[in-house]
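Query structure, 696 tokens:
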């Protein structure tokens, strides 16, 4: 057993380390800046840089890097040595305030959606003191934002930080209205539960599709899949346990509290849940978690699959984003209180979330729209592509009572009056029951279940923070103008519930009837990425992001193009891999096996009265299937060629879905049937069974 308290955060330049190593006045200023979004002076930066460098060198660091999160969705780093020659043949370890605060990676190849072309070729990285620096593999990592010289965000962190500021500003206005003068900041919090698959490296190495695309493009159903549900919460295999232990140790050193881990429903699928933290730290930590999962799996002879749907017919992987708001005084703003006043404040924040989800369904859907996640949303293990909020029966009862100004069964004889009546206690497990909702209230936080396992959580949290900030802004405007605060508050909550109740759904989200019901309610059901993305640039959304200073319209355009581009690129890579596998491996293998069958058939036929029906029918079917496969492969190759000449990004992504992806799906049907007929000896790839049960 590792000594957790001893290793925990041992590689992090945390507040405690700063307190021990910085002059007291400097420490105070840094902490103030962190908690109040204030910039640090160059003098302070110099003092911090030196202390940080000395600490890092003691931890074995020789290099430092500005660690950032470009629009690729993975993190980027470029290492620089601390070493500075002194001119007399010696060298010293040095790190200046300027090197800490700003970096200039030559990063012109990251996607910018045309931003750098139109403005300024270079981008620079800026230190984010709110996320602690850390040492990993002999390198001091400094979390940074990545922006263009004219200030446009080129990454996922900058808008996340801006959205946190927007939320902070509006939430504080609300708290002041409730007479709270002690709180000085409100931070969004997140805990991202991460699902993943582990497969043995030997099978992974034989699958081009896993290597190039992260998912299997072919594969017939195995004799045993997840139907027995015997893997869920089952005993963890020793090899996986060893992996998890090392992962936990490394995460703990970096200050990531990996709290629970268990086997998931599908064979070879697992989950890791961290303890929640402020969203920008949670986003950094989730990126680290994914990276460490990959590298540590390799050390254990395995590969970690983070794709949303590595195996057809088997549960995919998501990343549940648990979200709430917390004050610097330690209060969770989504925790129902015990007194009528606390309850009223809770109900107002709850209303802001309900209204945000209802009015910005499109943006929340877009925040999780990727080619990979399209396989998952709406399939039978994930929430549907429809946004709805699960609140549980008790809370729905309260909302109904408020809306209709009726009495609530649990709250006595009087009609429910906000600010006067007390909410009942919501038993936690009853709110935890509904696992089929896309957005569920789980007692004192919301759980957004749509994000895909490989995605950065930044996108979803940018939308959550900004839309809730926007609703709080409107609430604050109305309440600040009111003569009678309590009466206005009551009416505001009642009206908001009334106007947004259509988003509340406590039923089974996997049920086909919900799709129809949602349509009757006028809720959006954006099934695929190309269908969802065009909603991004609507007037309503531009106003939202510009008004809250999270994105300019130009930045939105850039992001929109990148999202469209990513979709098309992903599909095209999958298509080219499909074509390559079919032409180079699958058709030749099946053809060779057909030759073998034909030989046997001819030999058998020469014998009088022998039943040749097996060889005959197998050969016949294989002939039909290879012909269809070869024809479809031609169609696919033509479509890939044609796509290169499509200029408009919307047109291209629709073409990719309707023509390329559709042909790939058709091909897969033929190939999977051929696999069931072809001798295992001839089949060129490990089967689903071999992959799913490869780690024993
Ligand atoms: P549940 O049993 O409802 O899944 P857990 O306590 O296991 O709840 O938490 C699930 C995830 O939610 C964990 O990652 C946890 O850290 C996170 N979480 C808990 N409280 C909050 C909160 N206030 N804000 C954000 N995330 C939270
Ligand atoms: Mg969960």
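Result returned for the query:
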């Amino acid at each position: 057993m590792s000594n957790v308290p001893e290793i925990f955060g041992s590689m992090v330049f945390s507040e405690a380390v700063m307190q021990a190593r910085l002059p007291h006045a400097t420490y105070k200023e840094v902490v103030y800046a962190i908690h109040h979004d204030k910039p640090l002076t160059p003098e302070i930066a110099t003092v911090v840089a030196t202390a940080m460098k000395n600490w890092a060198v003691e931890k074995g660091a020789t290099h430092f890097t500005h660690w950032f999160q470009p629009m690729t969705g993975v993190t980027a780093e470029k290492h620089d040595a601390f070493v500075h020659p002194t001119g007399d043949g010696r060298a010293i370890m040095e790190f200046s305030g300027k090197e800490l605060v700003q970096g200039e990676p030559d990063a012109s190849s990251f996607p910018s959606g045309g931003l750098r072309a139109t403005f300024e070729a270079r981008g620079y990285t800026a230190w984010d003191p709110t996320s602690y620096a850390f040492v990993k593999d002999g390198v001091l990592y400094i979390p940074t934002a990545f922006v263009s010289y004219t200030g446009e965000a080129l990454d996922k962190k900058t808008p996340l930080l801006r959205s946190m500021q927007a939320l902070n500003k509006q939430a504080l206005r609300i708290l002041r209205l409730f007479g709270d003068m002690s709180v000085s900041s409100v931070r969004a919090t997140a805990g991202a539960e991460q699902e993943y698959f582990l497969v043995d490296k030997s099978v992974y190495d034989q699958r081009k599709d896993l290597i190039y695309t992260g998912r299997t493009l072919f594969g017939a159903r195995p004799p045993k899949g997840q139907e027995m549900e015997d893997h869920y919460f089952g005993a963890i295999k020793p090899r996986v346990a060893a992996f998890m232990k090392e992962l936990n140790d490394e995460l703990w050193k970096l200050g990531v509290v990996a709290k629970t881990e268990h086997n998931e429903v599908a064979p070879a699928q697992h989950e890791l849940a961290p303890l929640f933290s402020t969203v920008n730290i949670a986003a950094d930590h989730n990126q680290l978690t994914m990276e460490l999962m990959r590298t540590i799996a390799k050390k254990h002879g395995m590969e970690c699959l983070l794709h949303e749907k590595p195996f057809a017919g088997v549960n995919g992987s998501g990343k549940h984003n648990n979200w709430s708001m917390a004050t610097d005084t330690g209060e969770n703003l989504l925790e129902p209180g015990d007194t009528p006043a606390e309850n009223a404040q809770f109900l107002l924040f709850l209303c802001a979330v309900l209204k945000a989800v209802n009015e910005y369904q499109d943006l929340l859907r877009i925040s999780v729209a990727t080619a990979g996640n399209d396989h998952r949303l709406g399939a039978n293990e994930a929430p549907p592509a429809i946004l709805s909020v699960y609140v549980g029966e008790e809370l729905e009862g309260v909302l109904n009572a408020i809306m209709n100004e009726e009495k609530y069964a649990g709250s006595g004889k009087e009609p429910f009056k906000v600010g006067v009546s007390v909410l009942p206690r919501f038993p936690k497990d009853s709110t935890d029951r509904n696992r089929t909702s896309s957005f569920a209230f789980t007692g004192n936080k919301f759980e957004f279940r749509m994000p895909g396992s490989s995605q950065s959580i930044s996108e979803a949290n940018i939308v959550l923070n900004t839309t809730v900030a926007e609703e709080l802004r409107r609430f604050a405007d109305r309440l600040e103008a009111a003569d009678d605060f309590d009466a206005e508050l009551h009416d505001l909550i009642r009206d908001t519930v009334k106007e947004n109740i259509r988003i509340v759904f406590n039923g089974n989200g996997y049920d086909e009837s919900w799709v129809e019901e949602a349509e009757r309610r006028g809720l959006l059901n954006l099934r695929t990425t190309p269908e969802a993305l065009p909603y991004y640039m609507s007037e309503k959304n531009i106003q939202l992001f510009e008004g809250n200073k999270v994105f300019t319209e130009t930045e939105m355009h850039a992001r929109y193009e990148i999202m469209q581009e990513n979709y098309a690129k992903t599909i095209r890579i999958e298509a080219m891999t499909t074509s390559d596998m079919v032409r180079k491996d699958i058709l030749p293998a099946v053809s060779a096996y057909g030759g073998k069958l034909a030989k046997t058939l001819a030999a058998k036929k020469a014998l009088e009265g022998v039943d040749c029906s097996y060889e005959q029918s197998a050969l016949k079917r294989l002939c039909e299937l290879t012909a269809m496969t070869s024809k479809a492969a031609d169609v696919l190759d033509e479509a890939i060629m044609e796509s290169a000449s499509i200029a408009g990004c919307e047109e291209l992504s629709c073409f990719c879905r309707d023509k390329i992806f559709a042909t790939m799906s058709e091909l897969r049907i033929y190939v999977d049937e051929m696999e069931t007929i072809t001798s295992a000896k001839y089949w060129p790839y490990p089967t689903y069974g071999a992959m799913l049960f490869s780690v024993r």
